[in-house]
Amino acid sequence: MLMPWLLSGLGLVILLFAGDALVKGAVNLSLRLGVPALIVSLTIVAFGTSAPELLISVKAILDGVPGLALGNVVGSNTANILMVLGIPALLATMHTSECSTRKTYNQMIAASLLFIALAFRGVFDWIAGLILLAGLAYMLYDAFRDAKDHRHACRSGAAEDEEEPEGADPDMAGWQIAMFLILGLIGLPLGASLLVDNATIIAQTYGVSDTVIGLTLVAVGTSLPELATTVMAALRRQADVALGNVIGSNMFNLLAIIGIASLVGPISVDEAFLRIDLWVMLGASLLLIPFVYLGRDITRLWGVVLSALYGLYLFIILI
Length: 319
Description:
Blueprint lengths: L1 H31 L4 H26 L3 H17 L3 H6 L10 H18 L3 E2 L1 H30 L18 H33 L3 H13 L1 H12 L3 H26 L2 E2 L2 H16 L2 H4 L7 H19 L1
Antiparallel strand pairs: 1-2
């Protein structure tokens, strides 16, 4: 029984490294082709860091375990707020009072409410998928418009020059870009296959549903890149990066991952999602109101509260 756990861990490690490789390759290819850095950050980087969740969700649907796909997304969004913001806050206070994230936060709440409304249809089918992808298209259009205004302000001297997205290297050779892209494109499906197949074996062995495995093991695993990014942002006192990382990731998970996965095959909604998990996800999202609207910092005390709430949530799921 040890082997499925080891192979699940191996699949997760492959996913993390492959996702990082894909982001580096895509960012540098796009910049080489002259695509603005801000556009790359808002699209390719966001999609690349969500690629593990996407591959896992699609693979789960093809393997007949759609509960794992839905659990992965809902569990990952809850983990992103309670764990990914809670643990870094234990290390250093995040000065979120200095951030301006109201607009993107409002979009995240709107995406969450749309997702919950569609869930009460009982299934995420191609119709729900198209609605979610329409929401994604609007979000990206709005981001492009903001990016365009920002670049115009930079050119007119009204704002600072834009920063290059993480992973950008002007001196990266063409063969290195190709290598990162190939490693990412090969590693992602391989890692997803290992993780989903063995997580399903673990669930069947212990009599745990694929939904619970998605909400716990897989959700925590796919939130590790966001956790690593947020820890570094907290230590570097870059609260805007930490909070923006979580809000952006959650929106992409809801609109893009389930939107695309729904076109691959229908995803039935377990009754437990409608009773508990969707509301926990929304409640965790609403916990950000003091930091977004009231000018509060995420202190170590808040870190304890958020981390404890996530531990309690996992305990309730597993029992």
